Sequence to fold (148 residues):
Amino acid sequence: MSELKADQPAPEFELPDQAGNVVRLSQFRGKRAVVVYFYPKDDTTGCTAEACSFRDAFPRFEGADAEIIGISDDSPESHAKFAAKHNLPFTLLSDKGGKVRKLFGVKKTLGIIPGRVTYVIDKTGIVRHIFSSQTAFTRHVTEALSAL
Fold:
């Protein structure tokens, strides 16, 4: 697993969203920037704080013409409940088995907890900013906004 770096093309992927629809990264190319954030688990303290922070800043991301996509290995059904409970207006993708997490090179913390990493990808599909922190939950949002 090689670590993805800024100024490299983001790897193409397709995963099911909370409604079971397939979402491909390439569907946004040429149209919108994409903020992809990997998080450990739905409805846990840190992940809820992070997701709600993205929700609260959602109009600013829309104003920057950016799509927000959260990815964890939770099921589409779990994502649907999480999104409904916290009124999340953005896409959550199910990465069962961590295939996309591995493509991006997101490492586990202490070898067991899935990493928390945010990538800002421009309209051409190039990674422009990466922020990794397991504990600075809401800083992922401010980092992404400043990169846009």
Residues 14-147 form a domain with the Glutaredoxin fold (CATH 3.40.30.10). The beta strands are 14-16, 22-24, 33-38, 66-72, 91-94, 117-121, 127-132. The helical segments are 45-56, 58-63, 76-85, 99-104, 139-147. The two ends are 27 Å apart (CA to CA).
